From TrEMBL:
<feature type="binding site">
    <location>
        <position position="133"/>
    </location>
    <ligand>
        <name>Ca(2+) 1</name>
    </ligand>
</feature>
<feature type="binding site">
    <location>
        <position position="298"/>
    </location>
    <ligand>
        <name>Ca(2+) 2</name>
    </ligand>
</feature>
<dbReference type="InterPro" id="IPR002016">
    <property type="entry name" value="Haem_peroxidase"/>
</dbReference>
<dbReference type="InterPro" id="IPR033905">
    <property type="entry name" value="Secretory_peroxidase"/>
</dbReference>
<keyword id="KW-0575">Peroxidase</keyword>
<dbReference type="GO" id="GO:0020037">
    <property type="term" value="F:heme binding"/>
</dbReference>
<dbReference type="InterPro" id="IPR010255">
    <property type="entry name" value="Haem_peroxidase_sf"/>
</dbReference>
<feature type="binding site">
    <location>
        <position position="306"/>
    </location>
    <ligand>
        <name>Ca(2+) 2</name>
    </ligand>
</feature>
<keyword id="KW-0408">Iron</keyword>
<feature type="binding site">
    <location>
        <position position="129"/>
    </location>
    <ligand>
        <name>Ca(2+) 1</name>
    </ligand>
</feature>
<comment type="similarity">
    <text>Belongs to the peroxidase family. Classical plant (class III) peroxidase subfamily.</text>
</comment>
<feature type="binding site">
    <location>
        <position position="131"/>
    </location>
    <ligand>
        <name>Ca(2+) 1</name>
    </ligand>
</feature>
<dbReference type="GO" id="GO:0005576">
    <property type="term" value="C:extracellular region"/>
</dbReference>
<comment type="function">
    <text>Removal of H(2)O(2), oxidation of toxic reductants, biosynthesis and degradation of lignin, suberization, auxin catabolism, response to environmental stresses such as wounding, pathogen attack and oxidative stress. These functions might be dependent on each isozyme/isoform in each plant tissue.</text>
</comment>
<keyword id="KW-1015">Disulfide bond</keyword>
<keyword id="KW-0479">Metal-binding</keyword>
<feature type="active site" description="Proton acceptor">
    <location>
        <position position="123"/>
    </location>
</feature>
Length: 354
């Protein structure tokens, strides 16, 4: 990660001395929200939003804090998060258009990047809320979330976010948070491949703490069954319908052989034989052989955001086990069927949690 030195919005940052560090820092102290907002619930406009825990403003960097020349001390006054779709209208009016252009360029160069950016934002939000903690690298005081099993050698798009941050810093130094950049990038990536758009309330603060242990246990995995997935999403304040809709992001993107090998060689009854045979061509049975070979999550329209993912599930052609469990004689079958018949319903439901 590139070190950006301007990570603190001048208008809203609360500054104080942090005795936990040997150096002076600038950051946002913990902001408390209404009693109805629990610390593990993701909320913004819908549910995938600002964490109700430690929320701060570093830059999109590998360092957990920003060194400041001179002692900066202010009293620990309460800070109130005021999220707004017009948050940057005055402070950085070109921010959103700059991000949009950069994301369009990145996706035009590599269509897979759209899925990667949506997933990057999701993995950030699922741990501590949407606070950009997934961007923090290892340091003497931080164990990076990137090392979690479901992130390591899997989550990608960091260079794109760094590039976006650099462009935004050039026009508005120290104004736009990395958490907001991740959120806007995911939305714009969806649009770039024909997916829905949605209005974002901005003003998130960046975390200076990592949630490696949470990332290791709380992120959904490709092996999860329906009960496990339902429980994980419910713990974040997300409904079963939210879970199915968000799983529809697998209408784009690719997966590594190691994540679907067991499914295509398992001789299960919930996989189409022809589909399994096709996928075996580039995914050998032996562990360690071709582990990183890629296959599209949606074999029909892998580069377009549509509802074919759900049609595939009905045909038993879900690539990951965690995909196919959504249509396997369980409680979510009816939602999958509904989305397979109505792309507009899927599109509408997909953006609600964000």
């Amino acid at each position: 990660m590139e070190l950006f030195k301007h990570g603190v919005p001048k208008a809203v940052a609360c500054l104080h001395y942090d005795a936990d560090f040997d150096e002076q820092v600038v950051h946002q102290p913990t902001c408390y929200y209404s009693p109805s907002t629990t610390i593990n619930k993701l909320r913004l406009r819908g549910k995938m939003g600002l964490a109700a825990g430690s929320s701060r403003w570093p830059s999109c960097v590998s360092h957990a804090f920003i060194l400041v020349a001179g002692l900066l001390i202010l009293s620990n006054m309460p800070c109130e998060a005021q999220l707004s779709s017009s948050f940057y209208d005055n402070a950085c009016p070109s921010a959103l258009s700059t991000i949009r252009t950069a994301i369009r360029t990145a996706v035009s160069r590599e269509r897979r990047m759209a899925a990667s950016l949506i997933r990057l934002h999701f993995h950030d939000c699922f741990v501590q809320g949407c606070d950009a903690s997934i961007l923090l690298d290892d340091s003497p005081t931080i164990q990076s979330e990137k090392n979690a099993p479901n992130n390591n050698n899997s989550v990608r798009g960091f260079e794109v976010i760094d590039n976006v941050k650099s462009q935004v810093e050039n026009i508005c130094p120290g104004v736009v948070s990395c958490a907001d950049i991740l959120a806007v990038a995911a939305r714009d990536a969806s649009v770039a491949v024909g997916g829905p758009t949605w209005t974002l309330k901005l003003g998130r603060r960046d975390s200076t703490t990592s949630g490696l242990s949470q990332a290791a246990t709380n992120l959904p995995t490709f092996r999860d069954g329906l009960d496990r997935l339902t429980s994980l999403f419910s713990s974040k304040g997300l409904s079963t319908r939210d879970m199915v809709a968000l799983s529809g992001s697998h209408t784009i993107g690719q997966a590594r052989c190691v994540t679907f090998r067991d499914r295509i060689y398992g001789n299960g009854t919930n996989i189409d034989a022809g589909f399994a045979s096709t996928r075996r061509r580039r995914c050998p049975a032996d562990n360690g052989n071709g582990d990183d070979n890629l296959a599209p999550l949606d074999l029909v329209t892998p580069n377009s955001f549509d509802n074919n993912y759900f049609k595939n599930l009905i045909q038993r052609k879900g690539l990951l086990q965690s995909d196919q469990v959504l249509f396997n004689g369980g409680s979510t079958d009816s939602i999958v069927t509904e989305y397979s018949k109505s792309p507009s319903t899927f599109s509408s439901d997909f953006h609600l949690p964000w």
